[in-house]
Design a protein that fits this description.
This protein is α/β, with parallel strands linked by helices and about 280 residues long. The protein is built from eleven helices and eleven strands. It folds into two domains: about 180 residues, HAD superfamily/HAD-like (Rossmann fold, 3-Layer(aba) Sandwich), CATH 3.40.50; about 90 residues, Putative mannosyl-3-phosphoglycerate phosphatase, domain 2 (Threonyl-tRNA Synthetase, Chain A, domain 2). β7 and β8 form a beta hairpin. It holds the Pfam family Hydrolase_3.
């Protein structure tokens, strides 16, 4: 059996866009665990958020990509030891110094209270509090015109800041991406006598680099996302799209990947929800 590895976005992909549940993905999660296939969470979420989910689904022994690739959480690591937020402080200062005619159209996590984050994200209060513990990147919403956004993008670029669109937010950072972390992680799992076959799954433009960096990619259908335009790699089957949305589409795609490349045909099992899953649907 080849050395399989799976990378996944979270919101709108493994997690339902509306209620953050992964219930529909449980059969594939169980199959990955039983076959000891690493599952690498890759998201714009903070280290605290990702570690909590990584523990809950049983993949704490795997690294995780946080804040869109700006940070890499090691296996078993719960957060970044120093909790250094100097990059985030510098980033929010650059945003604050933008010309007011541009700044007024971008509101990020640093601009919102916890109550506003709860309302905007739909997260429980504790989860919203963890989402605000940022160290490298700033998600937010743009409400101006496309022309004004281009001007804002130019200002950001002049200051070393780039942005990516996810399923919900326009996230600003100093340029690291999920895709840049994939080679680094795959090297950790390389074995002399086994070929690595990698899969990535995502639903939004900030996932494109990740989808292109793995052997196979799956674009998860998400009617709430701005979506991913057709990619050249779809013509040869390297990248495919699901018809089902969120965790249901994720589940089918991962089980199909396992079946094709592991020689195993995972059996779908009905398992009870955890307490946290009951809370979020």
């Amino acid at each position: 059996m080849p050395n399989l590895i799976v990378f996944t976005d979270l919101d709108g992909t493994l997690l339902d866009h509306s209620n953050y549940s992964y219930v529909s993905a449980k059969p594939a999660l169980i199959a990955l665990k039983e076959l000891q296939i690493p599952l690498i969470l890759a998201s714009s979420k903070t280290s605290v958020e990702i570690n909590s989910l990584r523990e809950e689904i049983g993949f704490s022994d795997c690294p995780a990509i946080v804040e869109n690739g700006a940070g890499l959480l090691a296996p078993g690591q719960t957060s970044f030891e120093t909790q250094d937020a100097s990059d985030y402080t510098r980033l929010t200062q650059i945003i604050a110094n933008a010309p007011e005619k541009l700044r007024q159209f971008y509101k990020g996590f640093n601009d919102w209270s916890i109550e506003e984050l709860v309302e905007i994200t739909g997260l429980p209060r504790e989860s919203a509090f963890n989402a605000a513990k940022r160290q490298f990147s700033e998600p937010g919403l743009w409400t101006g015109t496309d022309e004004m956004k281009e001007a804002f993008s130019e200002y950001l670029s002049q200051n070393g800041v780039s942005y990516r669109h996810g399923g919900r937010f326009m996230t600003l950072s100093f340029g690291a991406t999920k895709g840049q972390r994939i080679e680094e992680i795959c090297l950790r799992y390389t074995k002399p006598d086994k070929q690595i076959i990698s899969l990535s799954l995502g639903d939004a433009p900030n996932d494109v680099e990740m989808l292109l960096a793995t052997d196979y990619g799956v674009i998860i259908s998400n009617e709430h996302s701005v979506g991913i335009p057709e990619l050249p790699e779809e013509s040869n089957g390297k990248i495919i799209r699901t018809t089902k949305t969120g965790p249901a589409g994720w589940n089918d795609a991962v089980l199909d990947f396992i079946s094709k490349h592991s020689g195993s045909n995972p059996q779908i099992k009905n398992t009870p929800k955890t307490e946290s899953e009951k809370d979020i649907g």
